[in-house]
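If your schedule permits, I should be very grateful for your opinion on a structural question. Please examine both parts with care and let me know of anything in them that strikes you as inconsistent. The record follows directly beneath this note:
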Amino acid sequence: MFYEPKNNDHGLPYNPFKSCCIPRPIGWISSLDAGGRANLAPFSQFQNLTFDPPYIMISANQNELGRRKDTVSNAEATGEFVWNMATYDLREAVNISGMALPPGEDEFERAGLQKLPSRLVKAPRVHGSPVHFECRYHTTLRLPGNGTMGTADIVIGEVIGIHVDDEFITPDGKIDVLKARPIARLGYYDYTSIESIFEMRIPEGEGALHGGMEGDPIKAESG
C-alpha cells in the first residue's frame, strides 16, 4: 500500500499514520494559567530533545473549535510547566484529564488527583506519578495545518528540576521501569505499557557515544 497524506487515499477504514509512529510517550503536562488556576492535560505527541541541558517538547493541535490548547497558553503566559510520568496505575486519571473542559476548570479535581508542590516552578505535580520534570518555557514553534485542528503548537521547555520517587530506583541506581510501568500511545484508541526491557550496546566501546546514549553529559564529555 502507498498513499499520499494530502489525498488521504489509503483506502483503509482508519488513517494509519499515527499507528506507524509508535509507541509514543505521553506528555502529561500540568500548568497554571495567569490567574493561578491549575490545568492538566495529556499529549501523545511528546518527546525529549537533548540532554545537556535537557529539553522536552510537546506538540498540541488546536481544539475542535480552532483554538489553542490551554497548556500552550499557560506555558507562554507563566513561563513554566511540569511533565508527569503517565503510568498504568494512573491510566484512568490520564484519560479523564484529556477531556475538553472549559478554561479554568481543574482537571486534577475532575480526575480525583492530588496536587504536589514543585520546588522551582509554581505549577503543581501529580501525586502518585513516579517521575516529574519541572520545566522553564523556552519557545513555541507553530506548524500550519489543514482544517480546524490541523495547526499545531510545538512547545519546548528546558528541564530545570527532576523528581524521581526513591521507590522506583533499583539497587544499582537505575529507574525501575518495570515497576513504574509507564504507558504509551499507539494509534486509534490504543495504548500500551512497558512490561519488558532488553539492553543493546553499539560495539564501539565505552566512549562518548555511550555517554550520549545514556544522556550523561559528564560521561559524554570525558569519552
Summary: The radius of gyration is 19 Å. The chain has a mean pLDDT of 93. The chain has seven helices and twelve strands. Helices lie at 17-20, 70-78, 91-97, 107-111, 177-180, 208-214, 217-222.
